[in-house]
Design a protein that fits this description.
With 439 residues, the protein is mostly helical. The chain folds into 2 domains: 306 residues, Formate dehydrogenase/DMSO reductase fold, CATH 1.20.1630; 103 residues, Cytochrome Bc1 Complex, Chain D, domain 2. It has a two-stranded antiparallel ribbon with strand order 1-2. It is elongated and about 85 Å long. The two termini are 32 Å apart.
């Protein structure tokens, strides 16, 4: 076990969600934009249309700044935030997919070298070589997506890995193919949106109209392809995940409608810019990108919701406790050991004075237990944004220690909650703390 990282108000999970949702925009733009760029450049050379190069240069500069500055910074942010928020989850991924990540980093290095070579060799190498550099970048970026998607899909649907512990059984899991092509489709949607924004800054009206129409077609195709594979992805989810998606609560219920609504608006926007390229102005384009960010955050929130109570499905709970055996990797469930010796003794960073609970330390010990077992999904402050525990306790009407103990005892009867892990005395300490929140 590791120390618990708490973020006041937001909660650690929302910090990860905000950074990860933003990161999808520059990362998916970096993956898709060069396919569009290379196709435009090829047309410029084939039809002797040097005026198209102005767009290509501006578009590449956008990718360099947005994807390789802000995207790289947010990528580092994801690594930091996930490592401190759920270090055991990240450790499990690294131990399983270290060579996958190493391979992805090789292709990322190729991307970095390729994009700088591409940008700074305009007019300095022959056309064929310049196109080849762009194609190397495009292929390398998509291979990076191929690898990363396998690891992301594994967390929700580890598949046969739960029995074999095999790299490839976990990588090629039930949701891998639909998620890969869903992301591939939507990455072209993002590339098209940015292309339209960049085209809106061009002075040549004919070039602007050509780029906007071409990007609009790519955007419509990408959105339709991504939506089709999203349907497949939803059908590939295990039954428990689909049930979790349907659990009633105002915000979670709205999330899928937000995503569908944004997709409809995007298709309408692309249809308008296809028919009337002159309407592709800067502010509407930026608004469309902002809508995509809202849709991405909603989709990521749904993915996190349906994965509960696990961080790696049916293996490791969100609070980093291993809940099931994995014989192929010589891993056993930690629940029996924690129930026998107590979570306060099992966690090495608990202050020594709180390991053995007494009447004087009961309340403080209960708070520490809540931090270890509850703070991954709940903020402990009433003004928190992430399922604040005080409000949950008030909503449940818990006013006595006996009631709170009974509630803690059947937490796992809720499909999105892990079971309480610890001794009966620790259960009482947590109950005392929960009751204190309802005063």
């Amino acid at each position: 076990m590791y120390p618990v990282w708490q973020m006041p108000v937001l909660g650690s999970a929302l910090v990860v969600a905000f950074i990860a949702s933003f990161h999808i925009l520059p990362s998916h733009l970096a993956t898709s934009a060069f396919w569009f760029n290379v196709s435009v450049e090829h047309k410029a050379y084939k039809e002797n249309r040097p005026e198209l190069i102005e767009f290509i240069k501006k578009y590449v500069l956008t990718i360099l700044i947005f994807s390789f500055v802000f995207g790289s910074l947010s990528g580092v942010g994801i690594w930091y935030a996930t490592t401190v928020a759920n270090p055991r989850g990240i450790s499990a991924l690294i131990h399983t997919y270290v060579w996958g990540w190493a391979t992805e980093w090789v292709f990322f290095v190729i991307e970095v070298v390729a994009i700088y070579s591409y940008y700074y060799t305009f007019g300095k190498v022959d056309n064929k070589t310049h196109l080849a550099i762009g194609l190397i970048y495009a292929i390398s970026a998509w291979i990076s997506m191929i690898i990363i998607t396998g690891i992301l899909a594994f967390m929700l649907t580890p598949g046969k890995w739960l029995k074999t512990g095999s790299f490839f059984d976990g990588f090629f899991n039930p949701t891998y193919i639909p998620q890969l092509f869903m992301r591939t489709g939507f990455m072209f949607t993002i590339a098209a949106l940015y292309a339209i924004v960049v085209a809106g800054t061009l002075k040549n009206k004919d070039v602007r109209a050509f780029i906007v129409r071409k990007a609009s077609l790519w955007g419509i195709a990408g959105t339709l392809i991504g939506s089709a594979f999203f349907v497949w992805y939803e059908k590939a989810l295990p039954g428990a995940a689909r049930d979790a998606a349907g659990m009633t609560s105002l915000i979670p219920t709205l999330l899928p409608h937000i995503v569908v609504g944004v997709l409809i608006v995007l298709l309408a926007w692309f249809a308008v810019t296809l028919a009337k390229p002159g309407w592709a102005k800067l502010l509407p384009g930026i608004a469309a990108i902002f809508l995509v960010l809202i849709a991405v955050f909603s989709a990521e929130s749904m993915r996190e919701r349906i994965r509960k109570p696990y961080v790696i499905d049916t293996y490791m709970y969100a609070n980093q406790i291993i809940g099931n055996d994995l014989p192929a990797r010589h891993v056993t469930s930690e629940l029996p050991a924690i129930d026998a010796q107590g979570i306060l003794h099992f966690s090495p960073f608990v202050p020594a004075a709180l390991r053995d609970i007494s009447d004087t330390t009961m309340l403080q010990a209960g708070q520490v237990i809540a931090q270890i077992e509850c703070s991954a999904c709940h903020t402990l402050q009433a003004d928190g944004w992430l399922r604040p525990l005080p409000l949950m306790v008030k909503k449940a009407g818990v006013t006595t220690v006996d009631d709170a103990q009974a509630l803690v005892g059947f937490l796992d009867s809720f499909p999105y909650m892990p079971p309480f892990a610890g001794t009966e005395l620790e259960k009482k300490a947590l109950a005392v703390y929960l009751v204190s929140l309802n005063k």
